[in-house]
Amino acid sequence: MKLLSYQYNNSINVGLLTPNGVISIESLRKYTDKELNGSLETLIEEKQFPIIKQIFEKNESSFGESDYLNYADLHILPPVSRPEKIICVGLNYLDHVSEGPDMDVPEEPVLFSKFNNALAADGEDIPKPLDGEQIDYECELVIIMGETAQDVSEEEALDYVFGYTIGNDLSVRDLQFRSGQWLLGKTPDKFAPIGPVVVTSDSINPNQLNISTKRNGRIVQQSNTDKMIFNCAKIISYVSKYMTLKPGDLIFTGTPEGVILGYDEGEQEWLDSGDEIQIAIEGIGTLTNRII
């Protein structure tokens, strides 16, 4: 199933995206005596999804046209807005490693972080930072944790996932490589757009999904998640050995080849005002943002 966070009539809600439109979680309350309102984070933390899924599937035939909202009428929000952690994996596709400057194939996942200030929604404009010029795109599959995970095995790791969404690990390369730490170039305001929806883990295989980026309508990245050096289960297991993953935490799983950084220096055309980036992942949808 696909879930999304949105604002409509000055109210923030969570909804189910269906072929007929969006059903708000709040509208399902009449079919149960359980509390269903709240943010997607609350839904995850309180394990409400099985109830929501059961209610919707049982009563779907009862919904009329007026029960559905038009997706185009909604102001889409980041699926989650206050994760405790935003963890990112670098150099996780072999061809991406080879296009970088003097990068070795990692023997373990390369981890860095972003902060909540970097979150942005589908359709939201991304402002250029005051300092730094070399803005780059990075299409990524993003894991949304559903359970507290501490030192979990690879075999069990995917059981702790709530779902998956699309992310753009926007980067300012001249800030990223200003020092030995990547943080400065990774977490300017709105430099981690995610969405537009979350596909729940029971309805998607994260290990074999086509993933691509378009810059102003032209394909610049195209790959499949089966080309990851470390798959989602390996990443979760590895991270959970060193820090406890919490419900709602986000993990950006790395980008394939085709980033601007990988071009020869004379051919690098960094993102600038007016550039539109569309990231598509099979089974999830398309995330679109514009640089201003």
Automatic annotation (TrEMBL):
Protein name (database record): Fumarylacetoacetate hydrolase family protein
Annotated family: Belongs to the FAH family.
Keywords, in A-Z order: Hydrolase, Metal-binding
SUPFAM superfamilies per record: FAH
Presence of the UniProt keyword Hydrolase in the record: yes
The keyword Ubl conjugation is annotated on this UniProt entry: no
Organism: Ruoffia tabacinasalis
One annotated GO molecular function: hydrolase activity
Residue ranges constituting the Fumarylacetoacetase-like C-terminal domain according to the UniProt record: 85-291
